[in-house]
Amino acid sequence: xxxxxxxxxxxxxxxxxxxxxxxxxxxxxxxxxxxxxxxxxxxxxxxxxxxxxxxxxxxxxxxxxxxxxxxxxxxxxxxxxxxxxxxxxxxxxxxxxxxxxxxxxxxxxxxxxxxxxxxxxxxxxxxxxxxxxxxxxxxxxx
Length: 142
What we know:
This protein is of the alpha+beta class. The chain has 3 helices and 7 strands, in the order αββαβββαββ. Helices cover 15% and strands 30% of the residues.
């Protein structure tokens, strides 16, 4: 139990500053970063506004970087690699592969849409996630 708690805290250190939005899933394929993905890959598509693609989206510096995803309702976490742009997403929403969705939602794909917190070193975050150390101090992204 103690080991699991330590693992969760160390994972959350990467998303102490986070965005919060809806997470949906999609059938993967060729993404805007020029990579073809499978439904079993741990991948994510960010909103058009967040991606801010250059004329050739394959050259986007966000492509290939990772984000951490946290489901505050269950405490489930996972990591996904940015490979695509989500045309229908609001600014802080993300669209993920079915494998990522199932990793953070115990109900699996049947929910279709859940609210998550997410962030990563390449995209940052805009608020404190609310995670505190054992001493009660807020944990911030390094």
